[in-house]
Amino acid sequence: MKRLISIFSLLSVLSCSTSEKEPYDLVFANATVVDVIKGEVIENQLIAIKDDTIVRVVDMANQKEVSASKKIDLNGKYIMPGLWDNHVHFRGGDSLIAENRDMLPLFLKFGITTVRDAGGDITPSVLSWKENIVNKTLDGPFIFTSGPKLDGHDPAWPGSIQVTNSEQINDALDSIEAIEGNYVKMYDGSLTADTYYQIIEEAERRGLKTTGHMPMSADLLTAVDYGLDGTEHMYYVLKACSPKADSLTKLDLGYGMVSTLVDTYDKNLANQVYTELAKQNFYITPTLYIGKTLSQLADADHSGDSLLQYMGQGIQKTYQGRIDRAKAAKESGNNSRSKLAALTNQMITPMYEAGVHLLAGSDCGPYNSYVYPGESLHGELRALVKTGLNPQQALITSVVNGPKFFGLERYYGSVTNGKVADLLILEANPLTNIENLTSINLVVAKGKSYNLNELRDLLK
Questions:
Q1: Over 80: is that where the pLDDT of 16 sits?
Q2: C-alpha torsion sign, points 154, 156, 159, 162
Q3: Beta bridge partners of 117
Q4: Are 237 and 277 spatial neighbours (Cβ–Cβ below 8 Å)?
């Protein structure tokens, strides 16, 4: 198993005692536990928390009176692991640091207790927030971060590390390890296929997780052979599913080949690709929700969005670039984004059934217009269900596969002894209807509980 670079010792969480000695810090009585892995609920449970770890889960009938600093009778309400958003961004330069920080409570409001930051240009601030959240001096989800992205000679995003040769690759990976980044994120602004493969190969040698964008000049299965662990968005698996991929690569079309890839998608070839990716324990973050949102930018009116008020004016200004591009595409008659969205929706269920690990990720953050923190992850889970997954399968892409990507199944993914006390309490069963995720009653992040009033106060 590849080593996880560091998680600030995975909080004090994993080093804290799991002793069952009373008193506990927080106890939930009469809870209905949602077992996402098995797809079932267990009624009349007592959950005891010490520090930020679940230390006892027992049937109420078998449990004597317990002593705790805080006891809450859930009266049958549903309790499940907190949600993971596996693709978010904190970025926009120094002038937007405060506005990015102010997004953190929105994740908690929607039951998201962990996020995977996919790279930006304010890494020192992100690392500071991460440490403060661990120390409980800042309210927000726990943050896994890649640190800066790795790109080619002309990086597409500020803050990225330029890599064009072996020496720069080693220096870049050294720097990611030095800041205790949690994985390596590649970007395809100007990254060549050869350099992309070299990054993966060296990261594999060091035992580092790799994911990100892929240069359209590269081949996904070749990258997987080098040790690639995952990919963000659907472009790259789509390319692997077209018999025209090699000839299109030779034409050096970049993303200009996407429309042809959609038209030449081959189901039989796709099933072979999915089987191979599953065999290699591969992860794909589809980001369906943002795809739909951006495809409608030219016509949609977002001025009345309830969450727009929580986005700083600087962040709102970053939305204009995508809006302008969407309007230009509409005027030119380019509907490639809509075609891509329709096909990628059809690809989800076959990939899942083949055993490919899907990760629920929203791609929220500055520059991604009207894709709001928290709400967009719910939108992603609804989108996954709309493609054909059932609610249990959709939830697995968030609360089970998120930690599994980092090899942390031992500490997350279920409401059982020894797990991190990241919990979501709901009025209704999310296994019967994914919309029930909105029936939030309480959120627990690293053992600290937030009721609805407290969550609202955070947003103020």
A1: no
A2: negative
A3: 88, 145
A4: yes
Name residue, tokens 């560091």.
6
Q: Which residue matches tokens 């927030």?
A: 129
Residue that has been written with the tokens 């059934």 in this structure: 353
Domain boundaries, the chain: 13-81+415-459, 147-180+184-228+230-266
Q: Cβ(148)–Cβ(187) under 8 Å?
A: no
How far, in Å, are 103, 306, 368, 394, 425 from residue 303 at the CA level? 19, 9, 15, 30, 31
Res 12 pLDDT > 80: no
Q: What is the pLDDT of residues 36-48, one digit of tens each?
A: 999 999 999 999 9
CA distance 355 to 138: 38
Letter for the amino acid at 325? Answer: R
Query: pLDDT tens digits, residue range 301-317?
Result: 999 999 999 999 999 99
Peptide bond into 23 cis (omega under 30): yes
The fold for domain 13-81+415-459 equals: Urease, subunit C; domain 1 (2.30.40)
Which residue type sits at 265?
Y
